[in-house]
Amino acid sequence: MLGDKIIALRKKSGWTQEDLAEQLNVSRQSVSKWEGGQSIPDVEKIIQMSQIFDVSIDYLLKEEYSETQEKVEVDFNEKPLRTISLEEANDYLDKSESAGGKIAFGVFLCILSPFLLMLSLANRTAIWFLISEAFTLSIAIVVLLVMVASAVGLFITGGKQLEAYEFLETEIFETKYGVTDMVNKRKREYERSHTRLMVIGVMCCILAVLPIVVSSILVGTEGIVFLGVALTLILVAIGVYIIIETEMKWSSYEKLLQEGEYSRSKKASRGFLEPIAGVYWLIVVAGYLGYSFLTNDWERSWIIYPVAGVLFGIIAIISETINKNKLDN
Predict the structure, then answer these.
(1) N or C: which end of the chain has fewer CB within 10 A?
(2) What is the C-alpha to C-alpha distance for residues 263 and 57, in angstroms, rounded to an integer?
(3) For 19-37, what is each residue's pLDDT tens digit?
(4) Angle at 147 between CA 142 and CA 151, to 5 degrees
(5) Global pTM?
(6) CA distances from 257 to 7, 33, 187 (A)
């Protein structure tokens, strides 16, 4: 009965096992054992719990149901928290790693999709392909659309894999005994690899500007500049692929531990930006394709994507600031 009462009182307070453990200066495993009836807290901890829950010691120790207990249990049933088992945690980590690879490769395809188009524009005489310029451009556009469509397919399949665990990003939940230790161990083992991959990915993105600088300043001809852009796309695509894949794996640990960007304090505002992002990027893609087809200005329209990325960063900051102010008020 004591274990049931601790669960009910903790739920009423909106605390996780980690929160209660911190209040009592004990481990989460101790709280889990108390609630599961595997052990009993000592007298000092019972006194502390009576104080922080604002109930009597008699209520905690006596088996009889009281009016207070019934009220607590009603509150608990109204707002249950999801619980993640060790099996579910392992399943999520495996699926997150698999989906991360698919989503990262989808982004890789999106970034690299104008590559053949840049090569076609770099070689307007069509000597490389021994076919007409118009036909070369047509092939390049078809390849671009096929790569974007393939990327969308990867996004959908990757998202479907994680669909059952979407609540980890926005809801407060609990983990069963052993989950926190397992996730912390895997996170520590991956930490060095994560840091190394992030450095490599960021370096690729930074160095990606070199082909454009070299081709435009040192050579200056239009064809070489487009070739520089094509090489830049390759470096950016590789860098972003590495960053997304390793960051998705790292974030899966933080989601289960409810740390960093997935802490309880930040979950309320996380879902606020997602609908904006979906609509925004649909508009960007439609605008890019519409403008490019109507003006046939494929040589310059690619600039829409980097500009849109910068603007989205500004929108994200503004949106999160507005939402934070609403939550504070």
Answers:
(1) C
(2) 33
(3) 888 888 888 888 888 887 7
(4) 150
(5) 0.61
(6) 20, 19, 10
Amino acid at 319: S
Reading phi first (left if > 0) and then psi (alpha if -120 to 50, else beta), residue 258 is in: left
CB 165 within 8 A of CB 159: no
Task: Determine the Cα–Cα distance for residues 45 and 66; give it in Å rounded to an integer.
Answer: 21
- 79 closest CA partner among 179, 2, 173: 173
The per-residue pLDDT for 131 is 54
Interval 240-254 mean pLDDT: 92
Residues near 175 by beta carbon (within 8 Å), at least 6 away in sequence: 17, 83, 84, 89, 183, 256
Contact by Cβ (8 Å): 233, 110: no
CA-nearest of 9, 16, 12 to 264 is: 16
Asked if 207 and 235 touch (Cβ cutoff 8 Å), the reply is yes
Q: Per residue in 126-168, pLDDT tens?
A: 444 455 666 777 788 888 889 989 999 999 998 899 888 988 8
- The CATH class given to the 2-80 domain equals mainly alpha
Enter the DSSP assignment of 260.
G
DSSP 72-108: HHHHHHHSPPEEE-HHHHHHHHHHHHHHHHHHHHHHH
> Which residue ranges make up each domain of the chain?
2-80, 83-262, 265-329
Helices (H), the chain: 2-13, 17-24, 28-36, 43-52, 57-61, 67-78, 86-112, 115-122, 133-161, 167-170, 179-207, 210-213, 222-257, 264-295, 298-301, 304-328
**Dihedral, CA atoms, 236, 242, 244, 246, nearest 10 degrees?**
-160
Mean pLDDT score, 66-71: 46
- In this predicted structure, the answer to whether residue 74 has a pLDDT above a threshold of 50 is no
Average pLDDT over residues 317-327: 58
| Tokens (6 digits) for 254 | 């933080």
Residue 266 pLDDT grade (very low, low, confident, very high; cuts 50, 70, 90) = low
CB 53 within 8 A of CB 13: yes
